[in-house]
Amino acid sequence: MNSTMKQTSFSVAAFSVIFGLLVGALIMLVFGYNPISGYIALMSSAVGSMQNIGGVLTQMTPLILTALGFTVASSAGFFNIGLSGQALAGWVGAVWYALSFPNLPAYVMIPSALILGTVLGGIAGAIPGWLRAQFGASEVIVTIMMNYILLYTGNNILQNVMAHGIKESAQTTKQIGANATLQMPWLTQLTQGSSVSAGIVLALVMIVVIWFVMKKTTLGFEIRAVGLNPDSARYAGMPSKRTAVVAMAISGGLAGLAGTIEGLGNYQYFFTQNSSPSIGFDGMAVALLGNGSYLGVLAAAILFSVLKIGGLGMPMSTGVPFELVDIVIASIIFFVGANYLIRIIQKRIHEMDAKAEVTAEHKKQQKSGGQ
Amino acid sequence: MTELTPVIEMQHITKKFGSFAANDDINLKVQQGEIHALLGENGAGKSTLMNILTGLLQPTSGNILINGQPVTVDSPTKANQLGIGMVHQHFMLVDAFTVTENIVLGSEITRGLSLDTKTAVKRIQALSDQYGLAVDPTAKIADISVGQQQRVEILKTLYRGADILIFDEPTAVLTPQEIEELITIMHNLAKEGKSIILITHKLDEIKAAADTVTVIRAGKSIDAFPVAGVSSQQLADLMVGREVSFKTEKQSAQPKETVLKLDNLTVKDARGVAAVKDLSLEVKSGEIVGIAGIDGNGQTELVQAITGLTPVQSGQVMLNQKDMTNKSPRKIIESGVGHIPEDRLRFGMQTHMTLVENMMLQTYYQAPISHYGVINPEAEDKMANRLSQKFDVRASGIHIVAGSMSGGNQQKAVIARELDRDNDLIIAAQPTRGLDVGAIEYIHQCLIDQRDAGKAVLVVSFELDEILNLSDRIAVINNGKIVGIVDAQSTNKQELGLLMTGMNLDEVKATLNEPTEVNTL
User: What strands lie across the sheet with B69-71, from one edge to the other?
Assistant: First the structure.
């Protein structure tokens, strides 16, 4: 039962990716591009240079973390749309802290900045969790609204609160110092100056940590029980309100860590944001494709990052616009969402097989037992 | 042709789900004007067979003949056209609509753009009179009793021209008096030429209502024979495939100190209306107290208040002389309360989790299952294996998803978990609902063993047989109040049935006109 369920969700994901790529191919055809050379250009660009491989890894890092965050929240029965704002909280906080204490040694600065960013994201996640547990407020609405609150709070901190000394201009901070960066010279050199950082290692470690917490600890057991059947969890004496808040805090904390790594690893500074960072929403897409599986999250993060980085190489060689990649990603998520449809198609195929067998058997019987 | 053509003939019906045959070469023959009982354990394949007859499932092989003509029933609409109607166990009625509106729903008589309610009312009244249903077509569903709601369901099928009526466990929600009335109605329907298929695992009802019975066991039709001349015991043995004892043997109770004491308890239901009103009750160690009553008289709220799932408005819950009023469910569990909940799927289990995870639902945070918040997989497997063995939980492995187990084994798993914790008080709400005789026998024995081991046991059930079989004392609940407490040895169904309708003991005695030795405790 368990293994067939896993098989089905894997085949749903595989079907979705194939259909998504087909939709992309169709659109390329309609607009007069050659889909085969388009996809070849995409792939060869994504893995064509060490710099681009570094780009894929940089892209993957926050996606893994926000996707893990989304997965933890949905295990507890929450739909956390606020990953974006939670990430921003971590980003602003960590960069501000790093710039404010330029003289702390790296071994103090880096761990404390990571913890600070994670905690800030965690608080931003715990608030909607608590509001739902206590008052039944829909976390969907609260997290969407909190995305705005955090976006403008972040911009306001940058523009009006931060000391002038740590700012480059009204719109951007200075670069963080060498004591706070997550980039490593040898890695930067190896990837020809990409902004890949130690964050990718942290993200991979977090996959294992979150898998362990969710599958092997009492806390994970509580989170899953509350998410699957809150009545039964309450009946069993689980502290369901506390569990819900903790799950949302972990979810937000992972997003906060993603934002922190963006700040200390990828960008190395903070600048005025026009909209909520897309890593939150892309992370949701990764989690949906990964469908609750931790290896699935990793695979989906790689796929989306390859598409995004490879997509940048498409216009140069084939003229296919970069936006096509977004169409492909959106189509994949559409098919994941429409998994009901895919399951029905699979079921029909099974039924047709079964029926064909039965009729064949029936005919055999009729023949052998004929009058 | 010497034999009459049957109204329905299902020949060699086989239905496979993968490699599993839910129905394996089943034959069923129903004559016109006959009440034909379909008897079988849970999971024997009764529902699958009826789903095939009503067009919800397609048979893998086999034929259906209606009045001798082969037919394909490929949709519920087709079944309707063929005159097959189903009276569902769970009524599908709109509370805010009138009887007539509910009946015509989906096949309204219209005059231009408006509904022709008058004609509909007349037609329904006529049908109701013809079959002696005594339903007021203009009454609102919310205002009529459960028994009458069931008659509305019957009218619904008749209104759509059904000649073959399938009753799915029709007596589960009825009082003994209502059950008698239902049986009369079924006889009336048969007299008027309707054919009835009665799905049940209650043997008394088959004896009282049915003409013929087909026994299904493990997906196969075992036998079909006239009911007259067969004893309930023979029916039960045939159904289960071995000898079954009904009366669970038990010694007389040895009640000792009070374990549970409820003082003037008042509890509100989800809508904020008082469902338990000023209720007091005691359960002592070494005795089983049964709470008899019709569904919806405060039993659910009472149990939830004791177990901490619903707040107590006023009054006190005392456990072993300690005040447990409005304590958290975990505190109450830890103080020694086992709770077999009424709604197994909603409260009792995590149906998407494995059997192991369900077995440790309350003890996962304690040693030896976990240390410092990390679960020990060996310890949990060991416990699940031990419990499965001790309580005869049959599953294809302890890592199977609980929702895929049969109802009987799910319930055994819940019971295993709740009885294994060595509690002082066991609350069992509908412990055998929907289970077959074999499982019922086993679960009753478990509860009596608990009593004999000195536990206090509180059983809530809508089944009078169960209450009578298990209890030492019986408290009858009506409208949130205990209307009388009687000794299980000296009471009977009739007396309990009247108490359940809200009469007090004196009124009941007067009605029965025979003063029995009833102890008011």
Answer: B20-30, B8-17, B61-66, B69-71
The mean pLDDT of B109-126, rounded to a whole number, is 84
The residue ranges of every structural domain in chain A are: 61-300
Residues A42 and A315: their CA atoms lie apart, in Å, by: 9
Q: Residue B2 corresponds to which tokens in the numbers above?
A: 């010497």
What does the alpha-carbon distance between residue A50 and residue A46 come to, in Å, rounded to a whole number? 9
Q: What is the mean pLDDT of residues B419-447?
A: 88
Sheet holding B337-340, edge to edge: B337-340, B425-429, B456-461, B288-292, B473-478, B481-487
- How large is the greatest C-alpha to C-alpha distance in chain B, in angstroms? 78
Q: Is A353 on the interface with B (CB under 8 A)?
A: no
Helix axes A294-311, A2-30, angle to 10 degrees: 10
Assign 3-class secondary structure to B469-500. HHCCEEEEEECCEEEEEEECCCCCHHHHHHHH
Name every residue whose Cβ is closer than 8 Å to that of residue B227 and which is 6 or more positions away in sequence: B37, B206, B207, B210, B211, B212, B213
- Per the CB < 8 A criterion, the answer to whether A301 and A294 are in contact is no
Secondary structure element (H or E) that encloses residue A186, with its range: helix A185-190
Query: Hey, what are A284's tokens?
Result: 């949701």
> Cβ neighbours of residue B460 under 8 Å, at least 6 residues apart?
B290, B291, B299, B302, B303, B342, B427, B428, B429, B430
Note whether B36 and B212 are within 8 A (CB): yes
**Hey, CA dihedral for B434, B440, B442, B443, is it positive or negative?**
positive
Read off the amino acid at residue B375.
Answer: I
- B254-336+424-521 classified as CATH 3.40.50.300: yes
- The encoded tokens of residue B482 equal 């205990």
Using a CB–CB cutoff of 8 Å, tell me whether A274 touches chain B: no
CATH homologous superfamily of B8-240 equals: P-loop containing nucleotide triphosphate hydrolases (3.40.50.300)
Residues of B in contact with A218 (CB under 8 A): 364-365, 370, 373-375
Q: Which of A5, A10, A28, A16 minimizes the C-alpha distance to A337?
A: A16
Confidence category of residue B513, pLDDT binned at 50, 70, 90: low
How many Å apart are CA B375 and CA B356, to the nearest integer?
Answer: 12
In this predicted structure, the answer to whether residue B219 has a pLDDT above a threshold of 50 is yes
Inter-chain residue contact B329 with A1, CB threshold 8 Å = no
* Best residue of A74, A216, A235 to probe chain B, by most B CBs closer than 10 Å: A235
Q: How far is CA B179 from the centre of its chain?
A: 14
Q: Exposure string (b/e) for A136-158, b if CB count within 10 Å is 16 or more?
A: eeebeebbbebbeebbebbbeeb
- Structure tokens that stand for B445 in this block: 């024995």
Would you state the structure tokens that stand for residue B333, as one six-digit string? 């569990």
**How far apart, in whole angstroms, are the C-alpha atoms of residue B475 and residue B481?**
10
The yes-or-no verdict on residue B19 having pLDDT over 50 is yes
Residue B521 has pLDDT above 50, yes or no: no
In this predicted structure, what is the pLDDT of residue A184?
A: 92
Q: Which residue has the higher pLDDT, B246 or A229?
A: A229
Residues A147 and A127 sit within 8 Å (Cβ to Cβ): no
For chain A, the distance separating the N- and C-terminal CA atoms, rounded to the nearest angstrom, is 44
- Those residues whose C-beta lies under 8 Å from the C-beta of residue A164, and which sit 6 or more positions away, are none
Q: Do B354 and A2 touch (CB under 8 A)?
A: yes
Nearest CB to A217; choose among B329, B346, B373: B373
| DSSP secondary structure code for residue B404 in this structure | G
3-state DSSP assignment of residue A19: helix
Across residues B14-43, what is the average pLDDT? 85
The encoded tokens of residue B185 equal 């109605």
Q: ipTM higher than 0.90?
A: no
Quote the CA–CA distance of A300 and A129 in Å, as a whole number.
27
